[in-house]
């Protein structure tokens, strides 16, 4: 098996990982980024961002392509499509299906993934009416009826996006008030294709070959109703991608990795950045900032370790 040695190995090539790559390689340390997929992370699937400073609107894919080109410019070694099988954070060894990476510092930037509703029919109909990516699948629902579940920024923004294709979009929310930013809410309330189903949860997703209805329960009255829909897009939040690290470092009650202000985790020389860590705001800008902070401190950690080795010789 191929062995690689790097000063810093970054796990995850989204905004946090790519920003960490730029800062680490500019700090003149050998840097690798490993990703399960291609680079770009979650924002690659966002149609548009309108809150990344310097760009009044920018395509998510385009922005992440720029991040990647920037990392390339500073010579970051990229390892996409790696199946990471095992990570030993204390020993700083990462095993993938193709290689073994030995690092002196690690930056965990593995991001997060959509939370599942956990109701009957959800798993069964993924790709046949259940989707977690409106940008990827929205066009399949031209002139159809879809339901979006959730009340946060993701649910409301994606519901608005789906009105481009669908003839009707229901937004099903478990309360009677949205969590999304006011500006996003205002835009949604203006749409005549969007209808809000308040105080309701999805109990089941039903269909034959494809989805054809959802079973809803009103949480205030207890009443259940069946509503015809062709597609269901759950956007009920995110859960961190931490399976490879569970039990090796401090995590909060939802599994997000706890860091200090240097982005250092409870394991020395291991940093975490972006959506995977406990943070009050999950945005491209905060992920990128986390990546920068993590990388700068990883570089400092390497310098201090080198000095200690020299003094001990
Ligand atoms: P979120 O803000 O955590 O919202 C999740 C929504 O799903 C909430 O409305 C929640 O209801 C609802 N929910 C949670 N569990 C549920 C369940 N089991 N059944 C039914 N509904 C459930 O998640 P998000 O919208 O995915 O956003 C994640 C982060 O990314 C946030 O920090 C968000 O601000 C950020 N983000 C920002 C932008 C932007 O600024 N343009 C765009 C997308 C995402 P309650 O309200 O009742 O808790």
Helix content: 10-25%
Beta-sheet strand percentage?
Answer: 25-35%
Q: Can you tell me the overall shape?
A: elongated
Q: Please count the helical segments.
A: 6
**What small-molecule ligands were found?**
NADP nicotinamide-adenine-dinucleotide phosphate
User: Segments where pLDDT lies below 50 for 5+ residues?
Assistant: none
Biggest β-sheet description: 7 strands, mixed
Question: Please, how many domains?
Answer: 2
Report the average pLDDT across residues: 95
**CATH architecture annotation name of the largest domain:** 3-Layer(bba) Sandwich
Structural class: alpha/beta
Which H/E pattern describes the elements?
A: EHEHEEEEEHEHEHEEEEEEEH
Give the total of beta strands: 16
CATH superfamily of the largest domain: FAD/NAD(P)-binding domain
Terminal residue distance: 33 Å
Short description:
The chain has 313 residues and is an alpha/beta fold. The protein has helices at residues 15-26, 60-73, 134-137, 153-162, 182-190, 284-312, and strands at residues 2-11, 31-34, 77-79, 84-88, 93-96, 99-108, 112-114, 145-149, 168-172, 194-197, 200-207, 211-218, 224-228, 231-234, 238-240, 270-272. Helix 1 (15-26) runs parallel beside helix 2 (60-73) and helix 1 (15-26) runs parallel beside helix 6.
């Amino acid at each position: 098996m191929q062995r690689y040695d790097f000063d810093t190995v970054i796990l995850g090539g989204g905004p946090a990982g790519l920003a960490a790559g730029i800062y680490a390689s500019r700090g003149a340390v050998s840097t690798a980024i490993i990703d399960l997929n291609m680079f770009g992370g979650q924002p690659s699937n966002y149609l548009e961002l309108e809150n990344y400073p310097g760009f009044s609107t920018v395509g998510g894919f385009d922005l992440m392509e720029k991040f990647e080109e920037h990392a390339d410019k500073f010579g970051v070694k990229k390892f996409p499509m790696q199946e990471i099988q095992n990570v030993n954070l204390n020993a700083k060894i990462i095993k993938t299906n193709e290689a073994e990476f030995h690092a002196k510092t690690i930056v965990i930037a593995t991001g997060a993934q959509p939370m599942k509703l956990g109701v009957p029919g959800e798993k069964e109909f993924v790709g046949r009416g259940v989707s977690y990516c409106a940008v990827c699948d929205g066009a399949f629902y031209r002139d159809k009826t879809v339901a979006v579940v959730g009340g946060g920024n993701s649910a409301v923004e994606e519901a608005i996006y789906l009105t481009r294709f669908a003839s009707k979009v229901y937004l099903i929310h478990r309360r009677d008030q949205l969590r999304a930013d006011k500006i996003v809410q205002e835009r949604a309330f203006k749409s005549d294709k969007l209808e809000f189903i308040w105080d309701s949860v999805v109990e089941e997703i039903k269909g034959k070959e494809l989805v054809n209805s959802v079973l809803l329960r009103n949480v205030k009255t207890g009443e259940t109703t069946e509503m015809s829909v062709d597609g269901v897009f759950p956007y009920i939040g995110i859960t961190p991608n931490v399976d490879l690290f569970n039990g090796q470092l401090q995590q909060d009650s939802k599994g997000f990795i706890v860091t200090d202000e240097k982005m250092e985790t409870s394991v020395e020389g291991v940093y975490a950045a972006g959506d995977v860590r406990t943070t009050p705001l999950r945005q491209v800008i905060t992920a990128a900032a986390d990546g920068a902070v993590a990388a700068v401190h990883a570089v400092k950690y390497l310098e201090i370790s080198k000095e200690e080795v020299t003094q001990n010789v």
